[in-house]
Amino acid sequence: MATSFDQLVSRVKQQLLGYTRDQASISYLAAPMTATDTTFQVDPSTVTNISRGLVEIGSELILVKSFDQSSGNVTVLGGVNGRGVEGTSAATHSVNDFVTDDPMYPKARIMEAINDTINGTHPDLWVFGEFEFPKIAARYEYPLPEEVEDVYKVYVNTIGPSAVWFPLSSWRFNPQASTTAGQVKPTPAPTGKTLQIMRDFIVPGRNIRVTYSKKPNTLTNLSDDFETTTGYPDRYIDLIVYGSCWRLLPAYEAARLQQSQIEATERAPLVPTGAGSQAAQYYLSLYQRRLTEERDRLFRIFENTQAFNG
Predict the structure, then answer these.
(1) pLDDT of residue 87
(2) Model confidence over 214-244: pLDDT tens digits?
């Protein structure tokens, strides 16, 4: 089952807020909104759910100055400077898009945590890629794509009707190859990464196939499919959710420092010191366990050339 970036954000938010969810103050747009509008209109019957301060529409955070209860018109604080605040981007929004007042976990922060977690899984986890090139007589070094992080296997297409791809055991991955031409090295490697064939018994013209590991791609658009975009299988989703929660939960401890807030003062006896940190550690342990499981699975399923030959 395909899982979009938006669905992944919802799963992280559900973990953070619980299955009962918090009763957030929400309204919705009564008219479309451009990326440069300094006023917008929400449903008049729910405009009182909006207060002066931060609101979220989609993944954009906006500073609100005031609202008109009779018309539902909302004025942005500081004009265009109040659009796309807190590192978010001003965007267009459609009728009926939700407007959330003072979100506990802004969607933009959850999206960042998800991509930080995806990046953090490498090099423990990786994505495979393949690259082929023909053997050239008297040439021992060949450029590789820039995305290559490490070479996993190298095969050559042998001569004969069977067309068997024979595994090569004598090769070397050079991640720091020269990118400029010179007298000693007339053919540079544009990406700075090459494969060196150490023993030359390959018939010129035969294809050499390189299976390599690369970093996963991060997610950009909320419609992006997790598996298609990142290259990771869908079974990694819970791993990414746990890692994202671990990154976001320490914000609860920072909120406790704001003792001027009545809510923080009232909740102090109910939520003991360190509760946020303990929850973060719990999700970290879940994340690390799943990361170890999937790393071990990769080594079991995808044997390297040395294991194959053995």
Answers:
(1) 93
(2) 999 999 999 999 999 999 999 999 999 999 9
Question: How far is CA 179 from its chain centroid?
Answer: 30
Closest among 125, 121, 113, 124 to 280, alpha carbons compared = 113
Map out the domains of the chain as residue ranges: 5-120+220-298, 127-214
- Residue 27 class from Cβ within 10 Å (0-12 exposed, 13-18 middle, 19+ buried)? buried
Residue tagged 């992944």 (tokens): 8
Closest to 214 (Cα-Cα) out of 280, 143, 121, 276: 121
List pLDDT tens digits, range 158-170: 887 777 888 888 8
Q: What is the mean pLDDT of residues 125-133?
A: 95
Q: Which of 5, 33, 40, 9 is nearest to 91 (CA)?
A: 33
* Dihedral sign, Cα of residue 133, residue 231, residue 169, residue 188: positive
Here the tokens at position 23 are 């009763």
Confidence (pLDDT) at 121: 97
pLDDT at 7 over 90: yes
